[in-house]
Write the structure tokens for this entry.
Amino acid sequence: MIVRVWRWPYGDGVSTLDSASREELLAERDAVIAVLLVEIEALKRRVGMDSSNSSMPPGSDGPAARAKRGKQRKAKPTPRPAGRADRP
């Protein structure tokens, strides 16, 4: 996989700033990154939800969740004897 990095042709814009301004910009960038990481984690949790692990009705599940639910089989009940075994 080839990844190309685009560079701003007029310098990085940060190296021309004084130390205090640079620190402010980096702190702001770090705060934005932290907020975005929290949002990504919340979205990942929402993507993994379906009716089996949330309060959503089964009809709201997508086709993949319905197919998965259809493949799961319920345990068969144990067969009972034909007659009553406790009668003498």
